[in-house]
Design brief:
Blueprint lengths: L4 E5 H12 L7 E5 L1 H6 L2 H11 L3 E4 L2 H9 L6 E3 L7 H6 L3 E4 L2 H13 L5 E6 L14 H10 L4 E7 L11 H21 L4 E3 L3 H6 L7 E4 L10 H4 L6 E6 L2 E5 L4 E2 L5 E2 L4 E6 L17 E4 L2 E6 L7 E4 L10 E5 L5 H7 L4 H6 L6 E5 L1
Parallel strand pairs: 1-19, 2-3, 2-9, 3-4, 4-5, 5-6, 6-7, 7-8
Antiparallel strand pairs: 1-10, 10-18, 11-14, 12-13, 14-17, 15-16, 16-17
Helix pairs in contact: 1-3, 7-8
Length: about 375
């Protein structure tokens, strides 16, 4: 290897899928979230692998993400979680399913569907049970049910869902149960008019912590990629992404020498450094500089020194036997993205979804 590579390990992806399936009833559908380039990987490659493995549904944030999957030949149902009004006709054209979350977007979709002469087009409706981000309020459920019934020639209610705020934090168990109770009330109202609706409220942590609320479908994201928001769960999962790079050059600093922009690192003793072809343009942000981040070289931790540059980082290899061209592991099975992110005060989601598309991807199958 002579450059920075992001490996996508399909055997680990399949393992994580099977781990989640074991926590579900046989009849429960699994929706795989592949938004944000498949959580920083390759959405098309990941979706194709998961489709072959048995995933029932896919979820994306925006319409253009769903269109990319359709153009790549993905024919399973795709839910667009956050559709925007200008893209609704394209959504319909590519047979994507909208998650409708407000009266504005609901009305706009009805108009778009009628203009396209659609009959019983499948829609999902999102309710806000406490995350306070997107969704109709629970008190609107009765009037919304009536409105959907009025438009039954045009649209068909295929799904009703909500999103949990703290399903990974059992200290917030009471809050999560209030959300689940609020959703159960909505379910009871909807099912009387639309008995064949797919209800879905559980995310990754919800699947593991609240299995009684599986309903017809669950939505999983981060756990498919190897991170479970809990140490005991992480032990059961296998990280899908391995980010590798190399040592471009070695330098030796003497006491008092500075390194990098703004002379952010000043050597207090003789220090050997390695420069790596990876920087904030690749998703390794400045928050990882000045000792907050680290990489692994020959199994040993090498802290990042000074400020992260756009295309390079410098690391301390004073106590590591290495040479130019040697392999460096940034994240992987033995180099947790969660640990790296947490050390810099952020989360694995932000780290992996921020990995730049300029990094070459390689499928390991």
């Amino acid at each position: 290897m002579s450059e920075t590579i992001l490996e996508i390990h399909f055997p680990n992806l399949r393992h994580n899928y099977q781990f989640l399936r074991k926590h579900l009833a046989d009849e429960t559908k699994l929706l795989a979230v592949v938004k944000a380039f498949g959580y920083g990987s390759d959405a098309i490659a990941v979706a194709k692998c998961l489709a072959e493995t048995g995933v029932d549904y896919f979820g994306v944030a925006y319409v253009h993400e769903g269109i990319a999957l359709r153009k790549a030949g993905i024919d399973k149902p795709i839910l667009v979680l956050h559709p925007q009004e200008p893209n609704l006709k394209s959504l319909i054209e590519h047979k994507l399913e909208p998650g409708l979350y407000s009266h504005r977007i609901f009305d706009a979709f009805i108009n778009a569907a009628k203009e396209s002469n659609e009959k019983e087009y499948p829609i999902h409706v999102k309710f806000n049970t406490g995350l306070n981000r997107l969704g109709f309020e629970p008190k609107e459920s009765k009037s919304l049910i009536a409105r959907i019934a009025e438009e039954s020639k045009c649209v068909q209610l295929k799904g009703v869902y909500s999103h949990l705020a703290s399903s990974d934090d059992l200290k917030d168990d009471a809050f999560t149960k209030r959300q689940l109770s609020a959703f159960a009330v909505i379910v009871d109202r909807v099912i009387k008019t639309f008995p064949n609706t797919n209800f879905h409220v559980l995310n990754t942590s919800g699947v593991l912590n609240y299995p009684e609320a599986q309903y017809a479908m669950v939505r999983t994201g981060i756990s498919l990629y190897g991170y479970g928001n809990a140490t005991q769960v992480d032990a059961e999962l296998k990280p899908v992404l391995t980010l590798k790079t190399i040592i471009s050059q070695l330098h030796t600093l003497q006491k008092g020498d500075s390194l990098g922009y703004n002379r952010a690192f000043i050597a207090t003793t003789t220090t050997k450094t390695a420069t790596l072809p990876l920087g904030h343009a690749d998703g390794i942000g400045r928050i990882y500089g000045n000792g907050n981040g680290f990489v692994w070289i020959h199994g040993k931790k090498a802290p990042i020194l000074g400020n992260v540059c756009m295309d390079m980082i410098m690391v301390d290899v004073t106590h590591i036997e290495c040479q130019e061209g040697d392999e460096v592991i940034v994240i992987g099975p033995s180099a947790s993205a969660e640990a790296l992110a947490n050390n810099a005060g952020t989360i694995s989601y932000e780290l992996i979804t921020g990995l730049s598309q300029r990094i070459k991807r390689r499928i390991v199958n």
